[in-house]
Design a protein that fits this description.
The protein contains 2 helices and no strands. It is an all-alpha fold. It has one domain. It is elongated, with a radius of gyration of 15 Å.
Length: 60
């Protein structure tokens, strides 16, 4: 689960970079950047935090 969250966060970071090569339209680039920020936020706060909380040190 942690590895999947890291991969999703990395893809969210690479999405705006790919948008630079795909289009010259600023609107589409902005949409890709916002989608990338959303993916990174979901991966870090949603998936990675949930996986960490399952094995937290204070729960042992």
């Amino acid at each position: 689960m942690k590895l999947l969250a890291i991969v999703v966060a990395l893809l969210g970071w690479l999405l705006p970079l790919a948008g630079l090569a795909l289009t010259a339209s600023n609107t589409i680039r902005l949409a890709l950047c916002l989608l990338g920020i959303g993916m990174c936020t979901f991966a870090i706060l949603g998936m990675l935090n949930r996986a960490h909380m399952k094995h937290a040190i204070w729960k042992q």
